[in-house]
Amino acid sequence: MIEQYVPIVEELISQVRARQHEFNNRMMAIEAAVASADTLEEARKEVAGLTGSIGISLNDRELLSCDSKMIAGMLFGKIKQAEVANLHIELSLHGLFKKTVTPETEWIEAIGILLDNAIEASPKGSTIFLSSKKQGDFLELTVSNSAPPLSNTEFMALFGKGVTTKASRDGHGFGLYNILRMTERYHGKILTRNESILNENYVVFGILMP
C-alpha cells in the first residue's frame, strides 16, 4: 500500500509547492500593479487579471491536511476514478486516522469499499460526499451518495454475506460484510441513515471506529 499510494500524495505535494511559488510571484506582481495604477478601476482590473486560477482546490486542501499519506494517496486516486465516471467526490477530513486503534490498512479497505459502492450506485453528474470527524474516542467516517431512501431493514440486509445489488453476483457481496466484520474486530459500529442534501435524498454508509 505504501508503494502504491505514497508516491501519489508526494506528487500532489510537489504540485502544491509549485503553485505556492507561482502564488508568491503573483503577489509581488499584484503589489506592483496596485502601486502603479492611476485609478481604482485600473487597479481592480490588474488585480483581477493576476488572481485568476492561482488557488488550490478544496479537495487538495483536504488531502494535504490528512495525517496519513497512504489514505490521502488512495483518496486522490478515487477522486480521479470518479471523474472518469462523470462523478465528483467532495472531501471533508477532520480527525486523525493514525491516532486511532484501527490500523491504516483497515481504514483504506473500508474507504475503498464504501467509495467503490457509491461510485457504482451514483447517477452520472452527481456528487459523493466523504466525511471524517472525531467523536469522543472514536473516528467517524461516512460516505453519502444520491439514491432513493432505504429502510433500516434494507440498510442492514446489505451487510449480509454474499448480498449484492450487482447484476453479476460472482465475487460480489463481500465488501459491506467485510466492513461489518472489521467493526466487530475493533469494537466499532456501523452507521447507516438517509440524509437530505439540497432537497435530494442521499444514503449514508459509514463506520465509527476507536
From TrEMBL:
<dbReference type="Pfam" id="PF14501">
    <property type="entry name" value="HATPase_c_5"/>
</dbReference>
<dbReference type="InterPro" id="IPR036890">
    <property type="entry name" value="HATPase_C_sf"/>
</dbReference>
<protein>
    <submittedName>
        <fullName>GHKL domain-containing protein</fullName>
    </submittedName>
</protein>
<dbReference type="InterPro" id="IPR003594">
    <property type="entry name" value="HATPase_dom"/>
</dbReference>
<dbReference type="InterPro" id="IPR032834">
    <property type="entry name" value="NatK-like_C"/>
</dbReference>
<feature type="domain" description="Histidine kinase/HSP90-like ATPase">
    <location>
        <begin position="102"/>
        <end position="210"/>
    </location>
</feature>
